[in-house]
Amino acid sequence: MFIWQLFVVISMMNEIDSQGIFHSQFVLTNSNKKYIPANFSAQILSITLTNTSKLCALACNQNIMCSIFDYEVFMSKECRLFEGDIDTVGSIDVSSSPQSIVGIVKLSSELFAQYGQSCSSNHQPTRYLICGNDSTYQCIPHSYWNALISMCKPQLPILGAKCSQNTSMCRTDLNLICLPFKQCGPYDLLIGTTIAGYDNATNGVDAQGLGQPRGIYILPLNNTLFVGDSNNCRVQRFDFGSRAGTTVAGGTGCGSNLVRMSRIWSIFVDNDENIYVGDYNNERVALWLRNASQSVVVANEGKMDGVTLDQYGNLYTAVYNRHVILRNNNTVAAGVYNVNGNSTIHLDAPRGIFFDQNTSSIFVCDTRNHRIQQFHMNSSIGITVAGGNGAGLGPHQLDSPIAVWVSSKTGYIYIADTNNHRVQRWKLNDTEGVTIAGTGIAGQDSTMFNATTGLTLNSDETYLYVSDQNNNRVQRFKLLV
Ligand SMILES: *[C@@H]1O[C@H](CO)[C@@H](O)[C@H](O)[C@H]1NC(C)=O
Ligand SMILES: *[C@@H]1O[C@H](CO)[C@@H](O)[C@H](O)[C@H]1NC(C)=O
Ligand SMILES: *[C@@H]1O[C@H](CO)[C@@H](O)[C@H](O)[C@H]1NC(C)=O
Ligand SMILES: *[C@@H]1O[C@H](CO)[C@@H](O)[C@H](O)[C@H]1NC(C)=O
Ligand SMILES: *[C@@H]1O[C@H](CO)[C@@H](O)[C@H](O)[C@H]1NC(C)=O
Ligand SMILES: *[C@@H]1O[C@H](CO)[C@@H](O)[C@H](O)[C@H]1NC(C)=O
Ligand SMILES: *[C@@H]1O[C@H](CO)[C@@H](O)[C@H](O)[C@H]1NC(C)=O
Ligand SMILES: *[C@@H]1O[C@H](CO)[C@@H](O)[C@H](O)[C@H]1NC(C)=O
Ligand SMILES: *[C@@H]1O[C@H](CO)[C@@H](O)[C@H](O)[C@H]1NC(C)=O
Ligand SMILES: *[C@@H]1O[C@H](CO)[C@@H](O)[C@H](O)[C@H]1NC(C)=O
Ligand SMILES: *[C@@H]1O[C@H](CO)[C@@H](O)[C@H](O)[C@H]1NC(C)=O
Ligand SMILES: CC(=O)N[C@H]1CO[C@H](CO)[C@@H](O)[C@@H]1O
């Protein structure tokens, strides 16, 4: 690479800057290169013909939005101008044309020295700043002020792009903002849609209403939703798109005989629609075979909370008051029976669990230790994969997490961070998580929860479903794929 200094006086710009010399420095690649934008339609400024590459550079210099050009990539004399940040957006690749080149505007903090200083609209110190409507120098459109490097940088033009601050790092003209989970996306992704329960957040026991929903489950093939309707002591089924639930377990009031349940926590539904219910107060797992009018007890070794099956049909249960995860009712799969603690082998009041087939491990909400533990099969040593830093609202913390779900596509860990009224997402080996939904404060509006007690993703991982216990509803959020 060599640096080609371009000093040009542009008559058009002279009209707004009588004394100005507008110069740009371009870094040129070797020949046989082209620019591949990350989002062509959002980045292309123009495609024209110029007789030389120098005239193409001149055209880029004249367009304040231009930060990248390439020349003679597809056609003789073709000059393409792009906006965007070469460091983060798109790439340079070999082209089929031997003489094609790419030029990149070289930026330095001196070019932005007057940022924030007062200005008058008829004076422009460089092509990189404009006089804003508050009469101070501001970044040009589609760029944002990066205080760390004292420069305006182009905004990111791609849905889902990683961003690191909550300000305007993403293309605001495309409706993208840097969301709390540090990806560019529309604000809409933070807004939940109620898909079960009343719209007014009160409880109800009719077909539409719910009373303190907790465990939820989605059938992978057709997105049928099952809700552990805890205070109504029943499980409701909602066909996709329907707000009218059908009772598929319990529903005749709370109690301890086999047709009733008391204080439901997690639920699990197999593909034949047999329903496993953590029937907490009755200290059992109630299995409701499809269409059955009463349940069968399949585990009864304490206050059952988390319930799940592995791919071989083994039943795992989190026993809250025994501080263990049991396999098939009487084998300890994790924790130490009747002993709570915070070491690697201990659990303290375990609740939601998730069996991850990819890693053959079980993820456990170690609720009173405010952490998520992962146990590989046949190992009694738990690995802390989220939290474990005391109860709190910090990104490295959780507060009494109750449900966990692991993506089979990305391995990301989604956590119902119950007492923080939010959903957190952690990556394996990360030291902090990001907030996917909720604000950290209890509330009733569509961006908030009041105690997140259950969560799941649909099988293609396009939606997140969350039980919003004290608002008596199940909320759905669109996920970035
Ligand atoms: C390109 O060069 C040709 C021949 O030298 C000239 O006629 C034409 O005006 C030039 N075009 C531009 C856009 O400068
Ligand atoms: C002036 O700037 C403010 C803050 O940046 C912005 O909200 C407003 O829309 C601008 N007004 C005009 C007329 O551009
Ligand atoms: C690319 O930009 C267009 C607007 O030009 C936008 O509609 C589209 O969503 C963007 N594509 C991605 C993947 O972000
Ligand atoms: C909440 O909505 C339900 C269903 O529309 C209705 O029956 C109930 O009266 C409402 N409750 C309140 C307090 O508005
Ligand atoms: C959804 O799929 C299950 C099988 O997993 C089937 O039993 C059920 O009838 C289906 N429901 C609908 C509404 O198609
Ligand atoms: C369950 O009941 C539904 C409707 O009453 C019926 O269509 C279905 O065949 C039954 N399934 C089984 C497995 O009994
Ligand atoms: C579960 O295990 C306990 C203790 O070993 C035993 O008493 C009980 O009968 C078992 N229940 C079932 C359903 O297997
Ligand atoms: C773990 O338990 C020990 C003994 O009860 C206690 O001293 C320590 O503070 C606990 N650590 C955390 C991180 O809670
Ligand atoms: C999990 O396993 C599935 C099926 O084998 C595979 O497609 C997917 O990439 C795996 N996911 C992760 C995160 O390893
Ligand atoms: C996490 O760390 C372990 C141990 O250092 C390593 O083996 C594993 O590959 C890492 N996993 C990911 C997803 O980074
Ligand atoms: C959250 O739910 C609790 C328990 O129902 C209630 O006391 C509290 O007022 C609710 N908070 C908000 C902000 O709605
Ligand atoms: C969490 C975070 O970065 N918050 C910042 C979002 O942007 C506003 C305005 O620049 C800051 O005041 C916040 O601190």
Please explain how this structure is put together:
It is a single chain. The chain is mainly β and 481 residues long. It folds into 2 domains: 2-106, 3-Layer(bba) Sandwich (Hepatocyte Growth Factor), CATH 3.50.4; 189-478, Neuraminidase (6 Propeller), CATH 2.120.10. Helices cover 4% and strands 39% of the residues. β34 and β35 (434-437) form a beta hairpin. Mean pLDDT is 93; it is low at 1-21. The site of one 2-acetamido-2-deoxy-beta-D-glucopyranose (NAG) has 5 residues, from loops. The site of one 2-acetamido-2-deoxy-beta-D-glucopyranose has 2 residues, from loops.
Topology of this protein?
Elements: E1 2-8, H1 11-14, E2 22-28, E3 33-36, H2 40-43, E4 44-49, H3 53-62, E5 68-71, E6 78-82, E7 91-94, E8 101-106, E9 129-131, E10 137-139, E11 143-146, E12 151-154, E13 177-178, E14 184-185, E15 193-196, E16 213-218, E17 225-229, E18 234-238, E19 246-250, E20 264-269, E21 275-279, E22 284-288, E23 296-299, E24 304-309, E25 315-319, E26 324-327, E27 331-335, E28 350-356, E29 361-366, E30 371-376, E31 383-387, E32 403-406, E33 413-417, E34 422-426, E35 434-437, E36 452-457, E37 463-468, E38 473-478
Antiparallel strand pairs: 1-2, 2-8, 3-7, 4-6, 5-6, 5-8, 9-10, 11-12, 13-14, 15-38, 16-17, 17-18, 18-19, 20-21, 21-22, 22-23, 24-25, 25-26, 26-27, 28-29, 29-30, 30-31, 32-33, 33-34, 34-35, 36-37, 37-38
The structure holds 2-acetamido-2-deoxy-beta-D-glucopyranose (12 copies).
Q: What small molecules accompany the polymer chains?
A: 2-acetamido-2-deoxy-beta-D-glucopyranose
CATH class of the largest domain: Mainly Beta
Mean pLDDT across every amino acid position: 93
Distance between the termini: 37 Å
Kindly name the structural category: mainly beta
**How many separate structural domains?**
2
Write down the overall geometry: elongated
Q: What are the segments in which pLDDT stays under 50 over at least 5 consecutive residues?
A: 1-21
CATH superfamily of the largest domain: TolB, C-terminal domain
Largest sheet: spatial strand order: 1-2-8-5-6-4
Domain Apple: 41-92
Keywords: Signal
InterPro entries: 6-blade_b-propeller_TolB-like (IPR011042), Pan_app (IPR003609)
Signal peptide: 1-18
